[in-house]
Fold this protein.
Amino acid sequence: MTNTSLETNQAPLLNVEKLSVSRSGRSIIEDVCLTIDEGEFVGLVGPNGGGKTTFLLTILGILKSRKGIIEIYGQKPASKSILGKIGWVSQSAANIPNNVRITVRELVQLGTLNASNMFWGGGATQYEQVKNAIELVGLQDVENRDISQLSGGQRQRAIIARILASKAEFILLDEPLVGIDRESRNSLLKFLDKLCHESQKTILMVSHDIAAIQQTSHRMIYLEERIRYDGAANCFPDLADLAALRGIQPVHEHNYTENNLYQLENLEKK
Ligand SMILES: Nc1ncnc2c1ncn2[C@@H]1O[C@H](COP(=O)(O)OP(=O)(O)OP(=O)(O)O)[C@@H](O)[C@H]1O
Ligand SMILES: [Mg+2]
């Protein structure tokens, strides 16, 4: 599913060339090149501090690059003409404090606010947008319920519904699976995959859950300052190959066994 732009001759939705980003004078991302096409579901993985959130914030135009090019729909980040086309779900967005009293419907409605409808309410079109978004994420039965009464998975879906109501086409999600149970995680992943296939959305999703991402996304990118892997999710390297790609030398002579793979995966997350 990668590089379909080459086959169709269509410009990629996101084009990143030789991107380098520093924070507080320290290089965080170095020489990143990639393209993402419309309809792709891309998983962005990597160790803590590897630069995933920094990368998303740079695409959004919140952080400035030191070097390189970013084009979204052929425009620079934060250009006026692409405002509203990009939706962002931040790390721990679903951790809304319990004292915030807001229903699912009201939260989703916030996604439809823009400069032109903020004061007059938006009317029938806005009502339809909100209704469709709530139905898409399957929360119609709890739409009048307070957000604080929902499960972690339902909250996360409500946050995504807000993005859908905004009509965003390119959705960036930073760790949407944190804090949600296995069942909700599976249905959320299925739902995101459906969004790409049936609603032509494009998704770039950060997660530490490599196994879950591998089962769902079409393509995976491993970022640790530089891109260490970018390719089909079903060809994602095993831990030994990944260590080699990251430039990690084996300390012991023995090969890793099935038993300690689990421990290693958890070490990766720390
Ligand atoms: N405001 C900041 N100023 C300076 N350095 C920062 C700032 N925010 C983050 N960093 C550093 O940038 C590096 C990359 O951070 P970033 O949050 O992009 O990583 P990440 O891959 O998203 O990590 P995680 O998986 O923990 O969310 C880290 O070393 C971090 O300490
Ligand atoms: Mg992060």
User: Anything to note?
Assistant: The pocket of adenosine-5'-triphosphate (ligand 1) is lined by residues 23-24, 28, 46, 48-54 (CB under 6 Å). The chain has a mean pLDDT of 84. The chain is about 35% helix and 20% strand.
